[in-house]
Write a structure and sequence with these properties.
Layout lengths: L4 H23 L6 H7 L4 H8 L2 H24 L5 H16 L2 H15 L1 H9 L2 H14 L8 H21 L3 H18 L4
Length: 196
């Protein structure tokens, strides 16, 4: 069965993004060879420019895809519980666990801010993981789980703590132990603003 033009375009974009994600996560943005990526995807440089405008445009699309995947994982893992407080903790664990995966870490936390700039990177974060975190904290506040506190401040505080934890975990020799230590610290931090 022949694909429609729209289906062909979507398949082209997905193939290039898949190849680019592999190169960006393994080699980093600066060392990922554009010619090799388009060749491996079976495309031309012109196709890349047509769909993404530039290597940076391709990287932004890949980063946004990584952000969406992490957000989906957070939602899935948090949904394993009916308790709103436990959903928060499961979501935090899901973020840290997924963000530290080798195929995500470099794109998400190392190259993302440096290639796109802090403002553009934050925008993608705010539309995905931070959005879910803020929504969960708002739910907890409405249901009386939280001490009187600004949800915006708390969202940024927890998000920053988790992003920093992921960077630390990625650099430690025993990542599994560092992951568990970070989850324990995040849980303890969350308990500090929980209404008893």
């Amino acid at each position: 069965m022949k694909l429609s033009k729209a289906e062909q375009k979507k398949a082209t974009i997905l193939k290039l993004m898949e190849v680019a994600r592999e190169h960006f996560s393994e080699q980093g943005y600066a060392d990922a060879p554009l010619e090799e990526m388009v060749k491996q995807a079976g495309l031309t440089r012109g196709a890349l420019y047509h769909h993404f405008g530039s290597k940076e445009g391709l990287f932004l699309a890949v980063l946004e895809s990584v952000q969406r995947e992490i957000a989906e994982r957070i939602e899935t893992d948090a949904a394993a519980s009916d308790d709103p407080w436990n959903q928060l903790l499961l979501g935090c664990r899901a973020f840290v666990t997924t963000a530290v995966e080798p195929r995500n870490r470099r794109i998400l936390l190392l190259d993302g801010p440096s290639v796109l700039g802090w403002d553009a990177w934050r925008k993608t974060d705010e539309q995905n993981s931070m959005l879910l975190l803020r929504e969960q904290l708002q739910l907890l506040q409405r249901q009386g789980y939280l001490k009187p506190i600004s949800v915006d401040a708390l969202t940024h505080l927890l998000s920053g703590a988790m992003n920093e934890a992921v960077l630390w975990i990625a650099e430690t020799p025993d990542r599994l132990q560092s992951l568990e230590e970070s989850i324990a610290a995040i849980t303890l931090l969350c308990e500090g603003f929980r209404k008893k």
